[in-house]
Amino acid sequence: MTHPLLQSLFDETERRPLSVTELTMQVRGALEARFASVWVEGEISNFKMAASGHWYFTIKDEGAQLHAKCFRGINGRIRFRPSDGLQVRVRGRLSVYEPRGEYELIVEALDPIGAGALRVAFEQMRDRLAAEGLFDEEIKQPLPLFPRRVGIVTSPNGAAIRDILTVLARRTRTVHILFAPTRVQGEGAGLEIMQAIRLLNEYHERAIADGRSDETIDVIIVGRGGGSAEDLWAFNEEGVARSIRASRIPVISAVGHETDVTIADFAADLRAPTPSAAAEIVAAREDEIGAYVQALTRDLVRSSRSLFTDARLRVQEAAMSPAFDEVREKLHDAQTTVDDAAHRLETLMMRAAQRARRRTDAVSCRLSPVRLGGRVAAGRARFIILCASRDAAVASRFEMARARLARASASLDALSPLAVLKRGYALAEDERGKLLRDARDVQIGDAVSLRLAEGLLRCRVEEVESN
């Protein structure tokens, strides 16, 4: 029996050496056939991302290390960014990089160990965008005080749109809806959400450019109902966050339930725990304004009643003031004086007429019949003179009485507080309505009321000077 080793010494085919390339290709074929799909666990080190978008890193454990490569078309579907020191589970195929003669793992799937891939991706993206300042409060837009038109970005078949419309229909009658339907989960949902936000902003800008101010959009609600982390992932995409931040219209993020948090929540101008809560926020301002107006109306009515009551009390107090009593008494005394003067004047006039009549009768008796004609003529002349004198005396007395009456009226007017007030004087009263006659009766800081001829001034004492 011929030994195979000895036979190989004389076999031309076996004796032909392989080139390095041929041997490497054969090794590559053998590796790829034997390890077409393999799972490997280890720690990532030396992670690099090339300008082409490919990832290069090493997977190692305590005893060995393995070069790995993940092409751009594959890593675009991986939802987190690998980093040095991260424990991962890798699925791929073994191959040989022929120029160096090194075997390597061509990565087809990559998952972190000890934490979900979505959670790692979420935290990495959140930290990266936060470092850029995308979530800063200073760049967020305030919501309008009284929104009239609301854009909604959500699924037309989900519970979110029904909840939003129900709340708005119940709480407001002035808010109009502009609905941009889109998918909210699955492959490509994030791109549709971005397009819907951009579409609403373009509509808003066209309305402004055309002068249709009543058709502009005041706020946008972006969201959906609850679901798993996988279902909500469209709202964790970087493009959605940047579209929200680039929106010229304030955006409310309303994704999932209250415990669900997405990247969109951080990027939005305001986060609502649920879609229904977002609708409540939009409609709440109308309720607040209505309640505020009602409260102002009640306060105005209450204040008006209080002012009328205070004014009535001040008028009553003024009417009962001793100063007005003094004026009333002086007017009464003046009226009495005028009445007495008129009565005395009438009495004097009657007495003068009686005396004249008696003298006339005496003269008539002393006249003789012969001289009667002359005496009568002389008497008639004297009588006419006396009558004229009487009339002149009466007129003079009337004028004197009228002058005294005028002087009395002028005196009364001078004594009247109202006349004094019209000359620029004022009545000073303290907080209790008591007349002030001495500057020492008040202290600095006391409230003082000054009654003028027209109106009332409320003042506060800043300085006291006493004579």
How would you describe what is shown here?
The chain is α/β, with parallel strands linked by helices. The protein folds into four domains: 98 residues, Nucleic acid-binding proteins (OB fold (Dihydrolipoamide Acetyltransferase, E2P)); 145 residues, Succinyl-CoA synthetase domains (Rossmann fold, 3-Layer(aba) Sandwich), CATH 3.40.50.261; 88 residues; 50 residues, no CATH class. It contains 13 helices and 13 strands. Helix 6 packs parallel to helix 10 and helix 11 runs antiparallel to helix 12. It is rod-shaped, with a radius of gyration of 56 Å. The N and C termini lie far apart (152 Å). The mean pLDDT is 83.
**Any idea of the CATH class of the largest domain?**
Alpha Beta
CATH topology of the largest domain: Rossmann fold
In CATH terms, what is the architecture of the largest domain?
3-Layer(aba) Sandwich
How many domains would you count in the coordinates? 4
Q: How many β-strand stretches?
A: 13
What is the fourth-level CATH superfamily of the largest domain? Succinyl-CoA synthetase domains
Secondary-structure content class: alpha/beta
Compute the average pLDDT. 83
> Could you describe the largest sheet, including whether it forms a barrel?
5 strands, mixed, barrel
The total count of helices amounts to 13
Unreliably modeled segments: none
Adjacency order of strands in the biggest sheet: 1-2-3-5-4
What percentage of the residues does DSSP assign to strands (E)? 15-25%
Order of helices and strands: HHHEEEHEEHEHEHEHEHEHHHHEEE
Spatial gap, N to C terminus: 152 Å
**Rg over CA atoms:** 56 Å
Q: How helical, in percent, are the residues?
A: 40-55%
Name the shape in a single word.
rod-shaped
